[in-house]
């Protein structure tokens, strides 16, 4: 039988290489990570283009952006818990394949409507709503699938690499999206998104890692209730997931309202892409910082401090006097917020039992739906006052929540980086 270069290498060399590469030392995880990069890029570039399409091409208002966010978020939230149960009951690989195929078709429909000039605001909102249903399955199954590809000791590495994937995508896709919008229109962005999802589909077809056999003696409702009860029985899970919810609902409104800041600063599509990209650059830097502090005995304080710096940076961005100052605040925000995200996600992944992983991740991944849902609040405030007030108010509320939790909950502030797997 033929052997790979990795298998022919001396065992000591392989061990050292695995230690340096972390989760990337696993060939299947590397393939999965690259495929995920394509689909994550598709999600981000399409979300960016939808907002620009509504505001610039279709003349939508801040409230229209809020409705777009709600149309995406509400279906996802409604499906997330069931998606988590399904991830514990079916082959996770096949479920990811189904999500990838459906997402490809939905983006293709949006691209065709846009390129034929038949697109209207309600089309964008309706397609986003269906995509939201699909994403209700995507988050839980992704979060519960990648641990099957790695050793437990590489969990922090895998979570950090997941963050790198999202942040690298946030760095590159906005620049590419701004270029595509300028020279090819928003429809070209949607076509590129189709390619991203198809690449994920092809990778999953090539992978042969199966999910562990599920326990089907219980019905779906009982499984769903059991998952929620498990989360509620763990104070650390409740607090970490709750803080993540709050961060995405109150703290991320600036992302959905970005087209209006673009107009306020008087920059074009390239400036729009640059603003998103600088957040990604900051977040990518934050992922590297987490790698240096993840084993610190006071990582809980570092995590909470990062979140407070994030809220201050977002408040500063809201009233930045010019475009360059705004970019500085966005970079700091991306860096600081990533510290919280990586530490919190690592604790959850290490402490959840495998048989409960899909359901817990179903509860956790509701958080990503709260970004567009928070835009409904932000869009409403922005329509009454302006986008600066909306972002500033969200930042103040979030800072208040983190201060209260930091002062009253020692289980969070006393997290020890050398003992993250401890119950």
Describe the structure.
With about 425 residues, this protein is mainly α. The radius of gyration is 21 Å and the shape is globular. Helix content is about 80%, strand content about 0%. Helix 5 packs across helix 7. It has one domain (about 25-210, about 230-420): MFS general substrate transporter like domains (Growth Hormone, Chain: A), CATH 1.20.1250. The protein contains 18 helices and no strands.
Q: How many domains make up the coordinates?
A: 1
Average pLDDT: 83
Cα-atom radius of gyration: 21 Å
- Estimate the strand proportion: under 5%
- In the CATH scheme, the class would be Mainly Alpha
Instruction: Could you tell me the CATH topology label.
Output: Growth Hormone, Chain: A
Per CATH, the superfamily is: MFS general substrate transporter like domains
Structural class: mainly alpha
Secondary structure: number of strands:
0
In whole angstroms, the N-to-C terminal distance is 44 Å
Helix content: over 70%
**In sequence order, what are the helices and strands, one letter per element?**
HHHHHHHHHHHHHHHHHH
Biggest pleated sheet:
none
Low-confidence stretches: 1-7
SS summary, helix count: 18
Global morphology: globular
The CATH architecture assignment turns out to be Up-down Bundle
């Amino acid at each position: 039988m033929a052997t790979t270069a990795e298998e022919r290498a001396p065992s000591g060399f392989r061990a050292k290489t695995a230690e340096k590469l972390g989760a990337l030392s696993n060939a299947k995880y590397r393939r999965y990570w690259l495929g995920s990069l394509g689909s994550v890029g598709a999600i981000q570039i399409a979300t960016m283009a939808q907002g620009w399409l509504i505001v610039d091409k279709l003349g939508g208002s801040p409230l229209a952006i809020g409705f777009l966010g709600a149309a995406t978020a509400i279906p996802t939230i409604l499906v997330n818990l069931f998606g988590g149960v399904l991830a514990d009951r079916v082959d996770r690989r096949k479920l990811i394949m189904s999500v990838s195929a459906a997402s490809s078709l939905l983006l293709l429909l949006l691209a065709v409507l846009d390129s034929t000039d038949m697109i209207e605001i309600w089309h964008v909102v309706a397609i986003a709503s269906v995509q939201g249903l699909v994403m209700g399955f995507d988050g839980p199954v992704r979060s519960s699938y990648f641990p099957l590809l790695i050793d437990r000791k590489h969990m922090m590495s895998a979570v950090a690499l997941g963050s790198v994937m999202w942040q690298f995508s946030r760095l590159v896709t906005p620049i590419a999206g701004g270029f595509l919008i300028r020279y090819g229109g928003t429809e070209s962005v949607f076509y590129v998104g189709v390619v991203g999802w198809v690449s994920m589909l092809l990778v999953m077809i090539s992978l042969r890692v199966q999910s562990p056999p599920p326990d089907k003696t219980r019905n779906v409702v009982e499984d769903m209730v059991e998952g929620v009860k498990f989360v509620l029985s763990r104070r650390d899970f409740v607090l970490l997931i709750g803080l993540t919810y709050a961060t995405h609902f109150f703290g991320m409104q600036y992302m959905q309202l970005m087209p209006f800041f673009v107009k306020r600063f008087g920059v074009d599509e390239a400036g729009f892409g640059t603003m998103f990209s600088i957040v990604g650059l900051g977040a990518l830097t934050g992922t590297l910082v987490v790698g240096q502090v993840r084993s610190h005995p006071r990582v809980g304080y570092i995590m909470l401090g990062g979140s407070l710096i994030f809220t201050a940076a977002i408040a500063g961005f809201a009233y930045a006097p010019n475009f360059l100052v705004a970019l500085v605040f966005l970079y700091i925000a991306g860096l600081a917020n990533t510290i919280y995200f990586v530490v919190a996600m690592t604790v959850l992944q290490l402490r959840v039992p495998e048989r409960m992983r899909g359901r817990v991740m179903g509860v956790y991944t509701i958080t990503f739906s709260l970004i567009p849902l928070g835009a409904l609040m932000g869009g409403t405030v922005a329509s009454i006052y302006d986008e600066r007030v909306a972002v500033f108010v969200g930042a103040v509320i979030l800072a208040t929540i983190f201060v209260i939790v930091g002062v009253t909950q020692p289980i969070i502030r006393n997290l020890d980086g050398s003992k993250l797997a401890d119950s």
